[in-house]
């Protein structure tokens, strides 16, 4: 599940593109610190090849915890920048650093 980062020269923003290969899935959402863990407005678009993709503008010089929700099931990105333990959920969250 690769994460692509594109830093903007004109603003202190990084465009982060989340890509999730999930051909059989009906819906994939990314939730995290950057959207207050709310799935509304964070649904990734399904492409013809079965991959889900979405781009978010995140402020630079920050670290964000996140997880994917694939058809109602939480999962981490296998290629995240790192992982952080979450006492509330009792599991690890993926981390992206921009």
Automatic annotation (TrEMBL):
This is Glycoside hydrolase. Gene3D superfamilies: Immunoglobulins. Belongs to the 5'-AMP-activated protein kinase beta subunit family. Keywords: Hydrolase. InterPro entries: AMPK1_CBM, CBM20, CRP1_MDG1_kinase, Ig-like_fold, Ig_E-set. The keyword Hydrolase applies. GO terms for molecular function: hydrolase activity. Signal peptide: none annotated. Residues 8-98 form the CBM20 domain.
